[in-house]
Design brief:
about 170 residues; 2 domains; disordered C terminus; binds zinc ion; 5 helices; globular; about 20% strand
C-alpha cells in the first residue's frame, strides 16, 4: 500500500534522516508523524538538511499565516511529496494533511499532482460534514507551487461554506 519503498520497513526501525529524505523532505514534525502513522520505529536525531535549508530560504517571501491554534481544523497543513518510488498501483505522490491543533493526520497516495485538487476537495468536505471540523486555513508546504491550489480549495469549498454558515 505504501508507494515509496518504505513498505518493507513497516513495523521496523528507520533512521529519521533516511525517512525524512524518503518522504521528500517534510518537516521534522511531519516526518515523525508519518513514521508513527506507518508504525515505524524512528531512531536517530534529525540533522540539518541542506535540501530543506535551501527550500526554507526560498520560502522567505511567503506571506505569514496564523501562527498557532488549538482549534481543530483552524489550520491544516497540507504536504504533497513526490516519491522516487512508484507504488504497484502507480501512485507517485503522497498527500498528507496534518491538523495543527490536534495533529490528526490524513494520508493518501496520488498518481498525479492534479489529483490533489480532485481528492482534497471531497476530503475537506467530508471533514466538515462528517466530523464537524471546519478547515479555516490551509497551508501548503511547497507554497509557490501550490498557491493556486490553496486559492482554489478556498473558493470552491471552504470559503463559501464557511461564509454560508457564519453570515
Ligand atoms: Zn530535508
Amino acid at each position: 500500500m505504501y508507494g515509496n519503498g518504505l513498505a518493507n520497513k513497516i513495523g521496523g526501525k528507520i533512521d529519521i534522516n533516511e525517512l525524512h529524505e524518503k518522504l521528500g523532505h517534510p518537516e521534522e514534525e511531519v516526518t515523525k508523524l508519518t513514521g508513527n502513522y506507518m508504525n515505524l520505529k524512528i531512531k536517530g536525531k534529525m540533522e540539518n538538511c541542506e535540501n530543506c535549508a535551501i527550500g526554507k530560504m526560498r520560502q522567505k517571501n511567503v506571506p505569514k499565516g496564523p501562527k498557532e491554534t488549538t482549534k481543530p481544523g483552524y489550520l491544516m497543513y497540507i504536504y504533497l511529496t513526490s516519491s522516487k518510488y512508484t507504488s504497484p498501483g502507480g501512485s507517485k505522490y503522497w498527500f498528507l494533511a496534518v491538523d495543527e491543533a490536534t495533529h490528526m493526520k490524513f494520508s493518501m497516495f496520488l498518481k498525479q499532482k492534479s489529483e490533489m485538487k480532485e481528492k482534497s476537495v471531497p476530503f475537506l468536505k467530508e471533514l466538515q460534514h462528517t466530523y464537524g471540523v471546519k478547515v479555516v486555513h490551509i497551508r501548503c508546504d511547497n507554497a509557490g507551487e501550490n498557491w493556486a491550489l490553496e486559492d482554489e480549495l478556498f473558493s470552491n469549498t471552504l470559503h463559501r461554506e464557511h461564509q454560508n454558515k457564519t453570515e
